[in-house]
Write a structure and sequence with these properties.
5-stranded parallel β-sheet
Length: 165
């Protein structure tokens, strides 16, 4: 415990963007996109309640988040958009008590559970999702100022794409 991933961009990883076994750090204000598997994969987090807050999971080849074993995350103010499998997947036999608040679930491959009230299924209206995507929200996005803390849903930090255009 006490570990933190904050203000990170994890993009185009060949496998999962984050893989955690035994301990999942708090993941805050991150962009996890275009990974070759899941954005975040957590296994047997030993009953802890890791917080995943203001994270944008977009265009991953697997799930946004994949959970197995004993894990009970608090997931809030996140965007799950265009992940090829599920936004959040739990494997058979997984002991979970997932708390999901003020998250957006848009155009993911599957939804294997019903969403609790207070979540969204809106197009987040990213600035660009093309070859050089910009996952900031447009001014017209329905997710602006809709998080549980009054900010935009998804990552809040202002990053700059430094790839060659």
């Amino acid at each position: 415990s006490g570990n933190l991933l904050h203000f990170c961009i994890i993009r185009e990883s060949r496998g999962s963007g984050i893989v955690a076994t035994g301990c999942l750090p708090e993941v805050l204000d991150c962009l996890i996109c275009a990974c070759g598997a899941s954005g975040l994969q957590a296994v047997d987090i030993n009953g802890a309640q890791p917080v995943i807050d203001h994270v944008t999971f977009a265009s991953n080849m697997g799930n946004g988040i994949s959970l197995s074993g004993k894990v009970s995350p608090v997931i809030k103010n996140c965007i799950f958009a265009k992940n090829q499998d599920a936004a959040i997947r739990t494997d058979a036999g997984t002991e979970t008590a997932i708390s999901i608040t003020a998250c957006d679930f848009y155009s993911n491959g599957q939804i294997r559970y019903s969403l609790p009230d207070g979540n969204f299924v809106d197009d987040p209206q990213f600035i660009s999702t093309g070859f050089h995507p910009d996952y900031h929200l447009k001014e017209t996005s329905p997710l602006r100022n809709q998080s549980s803390d009054g900010y935009n849903v998804g990552t809040r930090f202002q990053y700059t794409d430094t790839t060659t255009k």
